[in-house]
Amino acid sequence: MTTTNSAPRRWKVWLLTVCGIYPILAVLGAVLTPLMDGALMPVRLAVSVSFAVASMVWVINPFTARYLSGWLCR
């Protein structure tokens, strides 16, 4: 008997990504804005995006994939 792993629907991946990235960006904005007040916008964006992507890849995505895998692959 073979099992077929179906890929999650794109809208579900999108929804989980939005739900994960929104709080990360809100916290980063609140924390980094006072710390990087004099920095140029490209520098602030580079720092924010780096932290946000790292959080998504190593914390948020594994958590949501593990705990919501049943819903994702339906």
What does this structure look like?
Helices cover 77% and strands 0% of the residues. The chain contains three helices and no strands. It has helices spanning 10-35, 41-67, 69-72. The two termini are 20 Å apart. The mean pLDDT is 90.
User: Mean pLDDT score, rounded?
Assistant: 90
Contiguous low-pLDDT stretches (5 residues minimum) are none
Estimate the strand proportion: under 5%
**Principal-axis shape:** elongated
The structural class is mainly alpha
Rounded radius of gyration (Å): 16 Å
Give the N-to-C terminal Cα separation: 20 Å
Q: Return the string of H and E elements.
A: HHH
Total helix count?
3
Largest pleated sheet: none
Helix-residue proportion: over 70%
User: How many distinct beta strands?
Assistant: 0
Write the SSE topology.
Elements: H1 10-35, H2 41-67, H3 69-72
Helix pairs in contact: 1-2
Compact summary:
By secondary structure, the protein is mainly alpha-helical. It has 3 helices and no strands.
What characteristics describe this protein?
77% helix; 74 residues; mainly alpha
